[in-house]
Design a protein that fits this description.
This protein has 302 residues and is of the alpha/beta class. It has a single domain, classed as UDP-N-acetylmuramoyl-L-alanine:D-glutamate ligase (3-Layer(aba) Sandwich). 36% of the residues lie in helices and 25% in strands. It is built from ten helices and 13 strands. It has a nine-stranded mixed sheet with strand order 5-4-1-8-9-10-11-12-13, with helices on both faces. A hairpin with a 4-residue loop joins strand 11 and strand 12. Helix 1 crosses helix 8 and helix 9 packs across helix 10. It binds adenosine monophosphate. The site of adenosine monophosphate has 17 residues, from strand 2 and helix 8.
Length: 302
């Protein structure tokens, strides 16, 4: 099955209580693509500047990421600067430089326009909407966002949510967008905006999967070594969408397994800066951690 992603590719400067990295490779679409590439082939639509290293693009291509929809522009690549305190669940944005994103108009190549699964990673909601309009009859369109867009382009974001089947955002974003402090009430409001499925990421505490009449709770894997949570959300989404599109199955049981595969990939990602840990993962490590999650949450019915 075919999986298309549009989102950011970036240089990230990140500081956590465990260290800091300047100009590390990041971006929502980059994390997503590397993570999903462990499950399926990925079609990438994004833009980079002339300063983006060719070696990283070669790495993506070697991982079976199709770069036919990648635009290379003369300007500078998108840059994000953020910091985390001891609460690693909350990123504090220090600086956002849109650079080449300022004039970016995503073009979905003809060969990608019949993609069955589409992920609109964190990017300007108007650009997300323009990608939905260019894909013919996708089976599932899912969407992420962040506070930058909730605060700066709220109406456009709500319009985009009205065009998608599924939203994948974190708990703080549910609160900010819905105006509800209670996550259940906030989630209901977001489902009323249009999507049939909502995944709420809760950082190290796991994730919730909401549909109209059901909720599934995935645990967070207790980890001793968390160096950098940047990209955890996109890596989660890559595991989730990668698994769903590799199986072509959107049954409730498959969606639950997808939440666990998303959690597995995110749990590896936080163990290093950038996506260093995702460079060398093996299928048996992924499966081993899937079973760890299963053991962690398993208990008998009375
Ligand atoms: P996450 O930690 O999964 O929420 O996403 C982190 C990634 O999002 C980083 O690699 C950043 O480059 C990227 N990012 C940060 N701000 C934005 C923004 N306003 N638009 C698009 N991508 C962003």
């Amino acid at each position: 099955m075919s999986l298309l992603v549009v989102g950011s590719m970036a240089f990230d400067s990140v500081k956590t209580p465990y260290g800091e990295r300047e100009d590390a490779i990041g971006g929502s679409a980059t994390y997503f693509s590397v993570s999903a590439s462990y499950f399926t082939q990925v079609r990438l639509v994004a833009i980079v500047g002339s300063d983006f290293p060719q070696g990283e693009l070669d790495f993506l291509a070697d991982r079976n990421v199709d770069l036919a929809g990648l635009e290379r522009s003369e300007g500078e690549t998108f840059r994000w600067k953020g910091e985390y305190g001891y609460d690693l669940n909350t990123a504090h944005t220090l600086d956002t430089q849109l650079n080449v994103f300022q004039d970016f108009r995503p073009q979905v190549p003809a060969a990608f326009s019949e993609s069955e699964f589409v992920f609109l990673a964190n990017i300007d909601p108007e650009l997300q909407a323009s990608v939905v309009e260019q894909v013919k009859s996708p089976r599932l369109v899912a969407c992420d966002t962040m506070n930058f867009w909730i605060e700066g382009k709220r109406d456009e974001l709500i319009e985009t949510f009205g065009m998608v089947d599924m939203v994948v955002i974190n708990e703080g974003e549910v609160r900010e967008l819905s105006g509800e402090s209670n996550v259940l009430k906030g989630s209901r409001k977001i489902l009323e905006m249009g999507p049939k499925t909502l995944v709420v990421k809760q950082g190290e505490y796991g994730a919730l999967l909401f549909q109209k009449d059901s909720v599934f709770s995935a645990p967070g894997l207790p980890l001793e070594e968390i160096y950098d949570p940047t990209g955890a959300g996109d890596t989660f989404a890559g595991g989730f969408m990668g698994y769903i599109s590799s199986k072509g199955d959107m049954s409730p049981a498959a969606l639950r397994r997808a939440v666990i595969f998303g959690s597995v990939m995110a749990s590896f990602n936080v163990e290093s800066f950038s996506y260093d840990r995702l460079r060398t993962l093996t299928q048996s490590e992924i499966e081993g951690r899937y079973h760890q999650f299963s053991d962690l949450a398993h208990f008998d019915r009375l």
